[in-house]
Design a protein that fits this description.
Elements: E1 3-6, E2 11-14, E3 19-23, H1 37-45, E4 53-59, E5 67-73, E6 79-84
Antiparallel strand pairs: 1-2, 3-4, 4-5, 5-6
Length: 108
C-alpha cells in the first residue's frame, strides 16, 4: 500500500483517501475560440505518458478535499514529492531524483 503526504493536511495518509486526476500543469488555451479543432482536441485528450518522473494532479477526496500535485516515478511508483497547487515541482525529469523526506511526501 502507498502512503501519500497531503501538503494541506500535513499528514501521511493511506492511498485509499486520494484519487488521481491526470497530468499536472496542463495550461488551458488562452483563447479557446481561436483554437483549431486539432489544437482543442490535443488540449482535451492528449497527455504525456513518460517512463520515469511524471507530475500528476491528485485530490485528497476523503480528507481536506483539496487538489495538489505529486511528482511520481512511473516505473517504480515511488512518490518523490507532493506540493500545493500553484507551486512548481523541485524534481523534474532533468534533475536527478534524490531520496525524499516525509515532509515532501514518500511512499511505503
Amino acid at each position: 500500500m502507498m502512503h501519500i503526504f497531503c501538503p494541506y493536511c500535513g499528514e501521511l495518509r493511506e492511498e485509499e483517501e486520494f484519487h488521481v486526476k491526470g497530468q499536472a500543469h496542463i495550461e488551458r488555451p488562452k483563447d479557446p475560440d481561436a483554437c483549431s479543432d486539432a489544437e482543442w482536441g490535443d488540449y482535451l485528450f492528449f497527455r504525456n505518458n513518460p517512463r520515469g518522473v511524471h507530475h500528476e494532479l491528485w485530490i485528497h477526496a476523503v480528507g481536506c478535499r483539496k487538489y495538489f500535485n505529486i511528482t511520481r516515478h512511473t516505473v517504480t511508483y515511488e512518490i518523490l514529492e507532493t506540493y500545493r497547487m500553484g507551486e512548481q515541482p523541485t524534481i523534474t525529469g532533468e534533475t536527478k531524483a534524490e531520496p525524499t523526506t516525509q515532509a515532501k511526501g514518500v511512499s511505503a
